[in-house]
Specification:
Radius of gyration: 20 Å
Strand content: under 5%
Distance between the termini: 32 Å
Structural class: mainly alpha
Oligomer: single chain
Shape: globular
Number of helices: 14
Number of domains: 1
Order of helices and strands: HHHHHHHHHHHHHH
Number of strands: 0
Largest sheet: none
Helix content: over 70%
Length: 326
């Protein structure tokens, strides 16, 4: 019951933010964002999604291997596409990742480790993205720097301290249940994130993923007709991406549009342009994740005993997905 209340309250935040954006800007920017898209823009977004998704899959595979529940890269990429699609059509922005964690955990014989691998993988990506955002805000002048740099830096420092403390062998843990939890977290960090064979790949994969998201956002910016320089847009785009990762959205909508409206207005580009860009970005991402719907349908058909169409044409490792996940 408590978990259900938290879920509804988090979704309510997204609804409230989206309502405030509509009250502030009206519906015109939403319509303009959708009208700015055409087939070449959507195709470019889909192309950028391929290396971005593979990078996320590689990061997940590294973390899962460290926790002892490894999986093939092809299966990981197919599962990531499916999870991304579900995240863009279901509230919260996390249900798709919960789904892939549960499915992989059951396949590997340890649902807990499967879920933790996905949780750590997402956390690692968010930490790297926050660090990159802080670095960009430090290096590039931006009118939003003073408002967000302190909060981002503090969050990154706190996260780094927690990771280092939990990674220490001699870190004192309280007794009983809290102690067991902390010891499990420490072991997960040491084996799944901080191992010498793991963390460099996680950093590289996360950086590639952030670059892919940034490139997609720049495509949306240009499609929406914003002509500001890339140096001006990068800090704004990173802020929007950080907000988009918050689990308080409705199928991706809410905080993304709110932060885009505020940051673009602060940069003198106009809240309307920010919302139009965020809407265009959301539509591009939704179309780019449609292969995940195919993965979902194929998996459902197989579980239902229906022979699916050939999956090789997807080029996403569906054969490995079927072998790994049944």
């Amino acid at each position: 019951m408590r978990r259900l209340r938290w879920r509804w309250s988090s979704w309510l935040v997204g609804v409230v933010v989206l309502g405030l954006v509509l009250w502030w800007t009206g519906s015109d920017p939403f319509v303009a964002g959708l009208r700015s898209l055409d087939a070449p823009v959507l195709a470019l977004g889909a192309a950028l999604a391929v290396p971005t998704t593979v990078a996320c899959a590689w990061r997940w595979r590294l973390v899962a291997q460290g926790l002892g529940v490894g999986l093939p890269l092809g299966a990981a990429a197919a599962s990531c596409y499916r999870a991304q699609f579900l995240n863009t059509v279901l509230p919260g922005g996390l249900l798709g990742d919960v789904h892939r964690g549960v499915r992989h955990g059951r396949t590997a014989g340890d649902t807990g480790r499967g879920l933790r691998a996905v949780g750590w993988e997402r956390t690692a990506g968010q930490v790297v993205q926050a660090v990159i955002a802080v670095g960009v805000l430090v290096l590039l002048p931006s009118p939003v720097r003073s408002s967000v740099l302190g909060a981002l830096a503090a969050g990154a420092v706190v996260a780094g301290i927690v990771v280092m403390l939990l990674g220490l062998r001699g870190f004192p843990a309280p007794a009983a249940r809290v102690g067991r939890v902390l010891r499990a977290l420490r072991e997960d960090l040491r084996q799944g994130l901080l191992a010498r064979a793991t963390w460099p790949g996680i950093v590289i994969a996360s950086t590639v993923a952030v670059a892919g998201h940034l490139a997609t956002y720049v495509v949306a910016v240009r499609a929406a007709g914003v002509t500001a320089s890339t140096a001006t847009l990068l800090p704004l785009a990173l802020l929007v991406l950080v907000a988009a990762g918050l689990p308080t959205n409705i199928a991706g909508w809410g905080p993304r549009e709110g932060v885009a409206a505020w940051s673009f207005a602060a940069a003198g580009l106009g809240a309307h342009q920010g919302v139009a860009t965020a809407v265009a970005y959301g539509a591009i991402v939704t179309v780019a994740n449609l292969p995940g719907a195919v993965v979902l349908v194929v998996g459902t058909a197989r579980r239902g005993g229906v022979r699916p169409p050939a999956a090789a044409s997807l080029g996403l490792g569906l054969a490995e997905e079927r072998r790994a996940h049944g």
